[in-house]
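Example record for the data management plan.
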Amino acid sequence: MNMLLCVGIIRLRSALGWGLTWWVGTGLLGWTARAIESGEPVWSLSLPEPRTLVVPTNMLTQDSTFGSGTLRGPCRVQLVYGAALFPPEPMAIVELRFRPDRQYGSAFSTTASNLVIWCSTTTRAPDDLSRTFDENVGEDATEVFNGTAALSSAFVGPPEGPKVFDIVIPLGRPFVYDPAAGNLLIDIRNYGAPGASLLSGQARPDDLASRVVGAVSASLGSPDTGAEAVQLVYYPTNVPPSPPPRLTRGPYLQKGTPTNMLVCWRTSRAADSRVQFGLQPDALQWAVTDEAPVTDHVIALTNLTPNTRYYYAVGTSDTTLAGGPDYTFVTTPTNAKPTRIWVLGDSGTAGQPGYEGLAAAVRDAYYAYTGDRETDVWLMLGDDAYLSGTDAEFQIALFDAYPTMLRRTPLWSCIGNHDVNPVGWPYLQIFHFPTNGEAGGVPSGSEKYYSFDYGNIHFVCLDSESSDRTPTGPMWRWLEQDLAANTKDWLIAFWHSPPYSKGTHDSDSWDLSGQMLQMRQYFVPLLEDYGVDLVLGGHSHDYQRSYLLDGHYGYSTELLPSMIKDSGSGRPGDTGAYRKSGLGPQPHQGAVYVVAGSSGWVTQFIPGLQQHPAMYITNRTLGSLVIDIYSNRLDAVFLRETGAIDDCFTILKGVPPEPLRLATFRLGPSRIQLQWKSIAGRSYQVQWASGLDSSDWLPLSPVITATSATTGWTNSSLPSVSQAFFRVVQVQ
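Corresponding structural encoding:
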């Protein structure tokens, strides 16, 4: 066999004056050179005979009943063979040979019309393969075959095996493998070869070989201990120069402030770090570097201008890995500006069988809704990566799911119960949240709970899952100090387990470890003492939204009418927006509580549960919450994955109480029913007159003293007149 391995160019000039350009393969047992630019005769030298190696090693002389369909039907199979199976020197692999299974195999001849094979050096051990195909691929991934392959076998060999390795795939491009750098991965995508034999192999946990098997176009497969027997045809060679590292995660933005931004990313191998940035995508005139070789890169951009758009590119000192017009961010403003907030709860289902496309549908609906409008603040309400919050699950459910948003808008998250993974705490390794008050607020000393400012909004993130939830604990004490120092117009708090819920979780129950009860009993009173406006939670995989509430710290059966500050819809075109007279942190003027835990799935309600009495609406539907704040007005919509809007409400601050408003009015042949927005303790009366211009309004109801934010009255005795007009008045 002759094979030309090209690793460089040599130019020679002979004494006769004609020039030669030579491609030279070096470091082999021999070498080959061939004139490719000359009018003279071609000179060539031949390589020696190649070497062969069978992996797993015991399969050279042994066989077992296995029957792999890797070359028969459409599939993707990643085969990993441990470095200890190979000789220590690097090798240039030029051909792969398989053999038919001794029991299920047969002689055959067929054509694989579309066969794609990649090889790479992986750091993944055979017993630690990821079900995500891309996570197993090494940085030197090389396409070694792409096209049509003629496959055949004579099915030669002893009846009990092993058969001859006569299913031959010559590689279109050699792969240089160095066992010192890791394990060998052979990544096969077969789009179909009808009639091909089932292949020989074995399934043993101790043979330093395993695989991942899945659909040909899938991103996920199923790892197992099986592996095909492969005979590698190779030449010993030198190690080629290492290619640049590959970008395997990000970039993503963290901890945005008016003057700082963290840019984070991950590479396939350790390398130095560089971020170039500037005010135009084609003029990145500044750079921040770090010479330390790392795989998880974190670079702080400092001394930025508030409320300013920057563009950036990430990479190493000599290679740009990602950049362009879409790699951009806007620094946090110091003053009020129109602010769009996107809220996702329990969205981390992308890697869960049967739920893969749900979070993507919610995402795409929001992208269509917001269009070119920039997302200023992005919140996640926990359970960002099901089921166990592993690094691999975060890769699928977060980084693979939201790459565009991650590189444009800093993500702020709270811990969900499925994110609590004490083995390395991937959540705390991935996220970088303020601990020293650097984004606004009082230093918390913990990334599990923190605060930050955006314009005229103060955000508070709490940990309902893994931190001390008692009023003597450090989180409660920090929150009291932080709220006391806050002067912003708006106060929004978010954590995972909501204080009020009747859905897939019941806030009247102990649930997992009392999170919902304790957050309601200990933290809600403190937040309301300092004028919280909006509280966001997830955990329950549905959408629930409250009235304007204050003072409800017990069980749902203990909710009093006086605790509902406004029992209307909060919709300006209906019963009116929720109104708060104070602008800024004014205590006990009411807050809206939202459960938005259906951004990745909706699951079954607890049987027999009724809607929580504090809730205006409960929907078991997929979606996300979109909030717009400008000056003294907050508008929120629950956006379905279909693009429909299932709920909306508005909060106005710094405005007087609304004039008396009829919420509902129903008039039948002999019955009148009215409901109006009221103030607890005030007195009202229903009156009637025969004309709107009448000065003689007569009482129809007795004086009614309101006990809540809504008062109703029904009467079956109507005036005996041809026409009548009705009104509700407040009386002293």
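Summary line stored alongside the record: The helical segments are 133-136, 358-370, 391-399, 403-406, 426-430, 474-485, 515-529.
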